[in-house]
Amino acid sequence: MAKFTFELEALLEQRRREERDRMRALGVLEQERLAIERAAASLGAALRDEREALRAELAGGRSVDLGRVRLQSGASLHGVRRTHELALSAAAVLKRLDAARVELLHATTRRRAVEKLRERRLEAWIAGQRRLEAMALDELITSRFGGGEQGAAA
Long-range pairs for 112-115 at CB < 8 Å and ≥24 separation? Predict the structure, then answer.
């Protein structure tokens, strides 16, 4: 039996590679987003701990070490600044993530278009093969019965 060959198989493979590349790029950005979220959560916890320590230091009945309070206050301000930087980084990553998702959607659409074309061509090829088989079978039956009648007439 004949074998189906899709003349655009190389294009289909290229579209599959492109889609995989877009998926990888999206995965890298997702990892970056998760790292930023983990850093922000960790920093938030550290800021809460520092605030509690400062509050405990100030609420205590004993004398307050102002140098230590100043250091904690400075560290807290640094943490707040770092939180803002992380928020800006997260916003930039989210913007790049949205763009990467759109690119992945386009790549998937282009791949599916070629796959649909392949499916239609395969169906047409199968239908053609069935027609050829039916014609060959008809010809075989006709020659068998036609040959028998010619032999009886002679």
Answer: 114/8, 114/11, 114/12, 114/15, 115/12
pLDDT tens by residue, 118-153: 999 999 999 999 999 999 999 988 888 875 555 445
Q: What is the mean pLDDT of residues 61-83?
A: 81
Nearest to 18 by CA among 8, 29, 10: 10
Residue 135 lies in a domain: no
Residue 42 tokens read as 């960790």
Residue 18 within a domain: yes
Cα 103 to Cα 96: distance, rounded to the nearest angstrom: 10
Whether 129 is in a domain gets the answer: no
Q: Is residue 36 part of a domain?
A: yes
The CATH number assigned to the domain holding 79 equals 1.10.287
